[in-house]
What does this fold into?
Amino acid sequence: MEPLRPVVLERLIRYYRYLGEFTARKNVDTITSSQLGTVLHIDPTQVRKDFGAIGLMGISRVGYEVCEVCRAIRLVFGFDHPYPAVMVGAGNLGNALLSYPGFARYGLRIVAAFDNDPKKVGTFITGVEVQGIRSMKPFIRKHGIQMAILTTPVAVSQTIADRLVSAGIKAIWNFSPTRLSVPEDVLIRNEHISLGLAQVAYHLNGLREDEPRRLAILAQPCDEPCNPMEK
It folds into this structure.
């Protein structure tokens, strides 16, 4: 099978997530491309093309077996072959991610967490031990870990990323609000929470009837400094 384009992978995950939620609510065996397309606002023809790209063939007037669709998507992504990962940063966000039970459905298993706070080192979060940063590289090398989740402050994120790469990490799920520089063979997936909040704020700002949205008048003097960068 040829590598699938990112846009196709994103749609496959949308199908997978919806079918998991749908079957949890209703006991159904089949679904049509029209039904799936209507709910997800995707053209049914595109749904059929996406399924065809991973070897799925629907049955006329019946549709697709939900179990087969989910199994095919899991096979494409390798969800049935759990991959271990380490968490770097055991603050509030790291704690929340470690406590999230839904990662297992996508094959992710967090096996260790690392932090430089002595008060956190030696503690356990949902069964995962928090270790000191100095233990990070030896642990990754010993266990052959290839994925890391990064929730560290901006000031240290690039340094930590460099250490992760030198230890053998090939994919970083980055929750730190900064762009990381890594070799071409290392995948970076950025999750900028601040960007999401900014989009929500912009939308809500446009709903204010008493104060219509205006473009900034740049000729005016700036009397307020920018807010401090996220830490």
Summary: The beta strands are 30-31, 64-65, 83-88, 108-115, 124-125, 128-132, 147-150, 171-174, 187-190. The two ends are 43 Å apart (CA to CA). DSSP finds eight helices and nine strands in the chain.
